């Protein structure tokens, strides 16, 4: 059994995929990882739109070059009405963070199953929302192309470049 840290270190953003479908049982496990991910006050405001039809993939590829010809692209949103809201500071809410936690869980579960992914923010969110008829009370956060990595896919050179611990961790 792999340790969590070795799994997290091994995973990288894949930008080239095989033309091979993800097996339903593997996709179910990836979605189960989303279901059990923690969200603020367990409000679970996230929504996952699975783009895999020829029409949906054609549309998302028109919106962004960062779909990388993956056989599946997840479009992830949160419902503004369901997100946790901080009563101690107006304007602070959990939707974007909740989606981010869910996405991270899914990426790592997928990797553990041999499925690659890439977190994508390089797209016009409002265009994606309109193209896929996302309800007005949902905010699009990210896209996640997903599938089997092409044998020629490699991590970017930055993959193992880390800032020094004292740059990112501060004690007070």
TrEMBL record:
CDD domains: nitroreductase. Residues 9-61, 67-148 form the Nitroreductase domain. Signal peptide: none annotated. The keyword Hydrolase does not apply. Pfam families: Nitroreductase (PF00881). InterPro entries: Nitroreductase (IPR029479), Nitroreductase-like (IPR000415). Keywords: Flavoprotein, FMN, Oxidoreductase. The keyword Transport does not apply. Its cofactor is FMN. One of its GO terms (molecular function) is oxidoreductase activity. Belongs to the nitroreductase family. This is Nitroreductase.
